[in-house]
């Protein structure tokens, strides 16, 4: 399917690995000009090479910047003054007992997961309105709807993303700008095995055993009972980034494997 993204400019944060890299590769494969960001030049160079290798890829640019900081956001605003699509993918997570979550943990989680996306949206939203076209997408989580008791600080930030996205969509009413959220479930990434070991009954078990136990013990409502692949999330993001999704605005689209037990 032609998503009609050729030559449109997409900025994807947290794009050197995992979901962010998969999104960048998918958008590039649709002919978009993709800007990836990260804090490590070596990882940026590696990721940029992977994105450029996608057949049919548009131009790929790597900007060294910490998108979670004011300084990094200022670098992005200066280096990338125009974007058609902003994908706020940058995020962190951890499992931690509520009583052990410190004030600093709360602040760090909010700075990275909430403030960073709100800050970049503030930069690019009004120019999109003036051009009467644009796409802003927040990568939230099913945890924003069904909070895991061992990740409450993370879950709160994911709920906050849904609120920001819906509010911005209302501000874009009657324009060609849409703002939506995607809610992945547990997704395979380079850090997922370490996370699974941190909560496993036997941290020395194989990755396959760790994954099976995780879904049995921690995500029993999952209908697919497996980790989601990053490309599966990227496919939904690419659709939302395209002109074909014009009738979808202010929505929270679930790609979480059926963990949330509701039909709407």
Automatic annotation (TrEMBL):
All residue ranges annotated as the Ketoreductase domain in the record: 8-192
Enzyme class at the top of the EC tree: oxidoreductase
Keyword Protein biosynthesis (UniProt): no
Listed Pfam families: adh_short
Known EC number: 1.1.1.-
Keywords: Oxidoreductase
InterPro entries according to UniProt: KR_dom, NAD(P)-bd_dom_sf, SDR, SDR_fam
SUPFAM superfamilies named among the record's database cross-references: NAD(P)-binding Rossmann-fold domains
Keyword Oxidoreductase: yes
Organism domain of life: Bacteria
GO molecular function terms attached to this record: oxidoreductase activity
Family recorded in the similarity comment: Belongs to the short-chain dehydrogenases/reductases (SDR) family.
PANTHER family per record: 3-OXOACYL-(ACYL-CARRIER-PROTEIN) REDUCTASE
Listed name of the protein: SDR family NAD(P)-dependent oxidoreductase
Lineage, top ranks: Bacteria, Pseudomonadati, Pseudomonadota, Alphaproteobacteria, Hyphomicrobiales
């Amino acid at each position: 399917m032609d998503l009609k993204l050729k030559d449109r400019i997409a900025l994807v944060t947290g794009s050197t690995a995992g979901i962010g890299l998969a999104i960048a590769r998918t958008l590039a494969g649709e002919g978009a000009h993709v800007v990836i960001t990260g804090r490590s030049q070596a990882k940026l160079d590696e990721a940029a090479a992977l994105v450029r290798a996608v057949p049919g890829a548009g131009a790929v640019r790597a900007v060294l910047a910490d998108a979670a900081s004011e300084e990094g956001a200022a670098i992005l605003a200066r280096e990338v003054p125009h974007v058609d699509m902003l994908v706020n993918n940058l995020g962190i997570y951890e499992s931690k007992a509520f009583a052990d979550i410190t004030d600093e943990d709360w602040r760090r989680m909010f700075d990275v997961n909430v403030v960073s996306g709100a800050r970049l949206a503030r930069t690019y939203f009004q120019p999109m309105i003036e051009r009467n076209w644009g796409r802003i997408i927040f990568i939230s989580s099913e945890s924003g709807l069904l909070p895991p008791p061992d990740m409450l600080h993370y879950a709160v930030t994911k709920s906050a993303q849904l609120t920001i996205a819906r509010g911005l969509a209302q501000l874009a009413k009657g324009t060609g700008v849409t703002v939506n959220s995607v809610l992945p479930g547990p997704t395979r990434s380079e850090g997922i095995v370490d996370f699974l070991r941190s909560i496993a009954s036997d941290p020395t078990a194989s990755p396959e055993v760790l994954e099976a136990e995780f879904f049995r013990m921690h995500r029993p409502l999952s209908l697919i009972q497996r980790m989601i692949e990053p490309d599966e999330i990227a496919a939904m993001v690419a659709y939302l980034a395209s002109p074909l999704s014009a009738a979808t605005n202010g929505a929270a689209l679930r790609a979480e494997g059926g963990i949330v037990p509701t039909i709407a």
